[in-house]
Amino acid sequence: MKVLANDGISKSGIKALEKGGFEVITTKVAQEQVANYINQNNISVVLVRSATKVRKDIIDACPGLKIIGRGGVGMDNIDVEYARSKGIHVINTPASSSESVAELVFAHLFTGVRFLHDSNRNMPLEGDTNFDGLKKAYANGIELRGKTLGIVGFGRIGQAVAKMALGLGMKVIAADKFVDKAEVKVEFYNGQFINVEFETEPLEDVFKHADFITLHVPAQEGYVIGNEEFQLLKDGVGIVNCARGGVIDEVALLKALDSNKVAFAGLDVFENEPTPEIQILMHPNISLTPHIGAATLEAQDRIGTELAEQIISLLKNEK
Predict the structure, then answer these.
(1) Most C-beta atoms within 10 A of its C-beta, which of 227, 282, 300, 306?
(2) pLDDT at 295 > cutoff 70
(3) How many whole angstroms separate alpha carbon 228 and alpha carbon 158?
(4) Residues above pLDDT 90, as percent of the chain
(5) How many other CB atoms sit within 10 Å of the CB of residue 242?
(6) Phi-psi region of 50 (alpha: psi -120 to 50; beta: other; left: phi over 0)
C-alpha cells in the first residue's frame, strides 16, 4: 500500500511505515492536483499537516482512500465527519507536539517582556551608533516569575504550558468549557515530580485577572478575543496565540496595541495564512513566527512514529 505524506514526514515515520510494508511518497503535490495524484498512483493513505486541505471534493474523487492522517492536533483542514461517513479512517496525533507548542509560547512571552523582537530588528541597524539609546529604550523589562498566566483552553497543550509556567514560579489560572478540573504532573530531570490540581474558572475571570493570556483552543465560529473582550483585560497585558488564526480579532488587537491596552502580542498563527496582514507583520510590539508551533525535530519524530503506528494498526488486516 502507498502513503502520500504531502506535507512531509520525519525519517523515523518513513522508516516505521516502510518496516510495516508501506511505500512512502513525499512528493509535494499542489492542492489542485492532490485528487488526481491519489488516483493515478493508487494511494491508500494521505498524510497532511496544516498546508494541504482534504475536503469533500477530494474525498468524493478518491474512492480508494482508506486513511486521512493529520500530523498534529487540529483537523480543521480536513472534512472529518464527511470522510468518516464514507468509511475513511481519520487520525491525528494530539499528544505529540504539546511540549513543542508550549515552549514556543514561552519563547514569545520571554521575547515580549524583554523586547527581543524589537531589539533584534534595531540592533543590526543602530547597535554600533546608538547603543546607549537602545539600552535605555529596552530598560523596562519585566519578569514572568510571580505574574499570573491565563490559559484559555486547558487540554493537552494548555496543561503543558501550565507545567512550564509553574516551573517559572508563575501563578496559573485557566478557562475551558469542557474541563472543570485537571491534575497537572510537573516532572523534573531527576525523577522527582509534583502534582498540582487546577479548577478552571469562567473566561471573564481569566481575562480580568491575568497578566498574560495564551490561547489553546480549536478554530471556531467567531472570535474568542474581540473588541469587547479586550476591554475586560488588564491594562498592559501580553497575549500569545500559538493555536489557530481567527480566534483573535486582528483589527481589534492592533487597536489595543496602539492604545497600550495590550503591551505586546506573540503570534504564530494568523487570520490570513499564508499571507498575514502587513500591519500585523510590521507592528513593533508583535513577536512573529510563521506557524511553527509543532516544528521541532523531537515533535516531528513523535508525530511520524505515532502516525505510522496508527496506520499499521488500522490496515494490517487489509493488506
Answers:
(1) 300
(2) yes
(3) 23
(4) 95
(5) 26
(6) alpha
pLDDT on residue 318: 64
Strand partners, 91: 69
Q: Which residues are catalytic?
A: 244, 273, 291
Specify whether the CB–CB gap between 165 and 149 falls below 8 A: yes
pLDDT tens digits, residue range 108-144? 999 999 999 999 999 999 999 999 999 999 999 999 9
Rg (CA), the chain: 22
Distance of alpha carbon 55 from alpha carbon 147, whole angstroms: 43
Decide if 49 contacts 7 (C-beta within 8 A): yes
Residues 6+ apart with CB under 8 A from 182: 154, 159, 174, 197, 198, 200
Closest among 80, 95, 89, 7 to 47, alpha carbons compared: 7
- Residue count of the chain: 319
Cα separation of 51 and 77, whole Å?
8
Rounded mean pLDDT of 251-277? 97
Nearest one of 11, 19, 5, 112 to 48, comparing CA atoms: 5
pTM (2 decimals)? 0.90
pLDDT of residue 94: 87
Q: Which residue has the cell 547597535?
A: 127
- Residue closest to 263 by CA, chosen among 286, 244, 247: 286
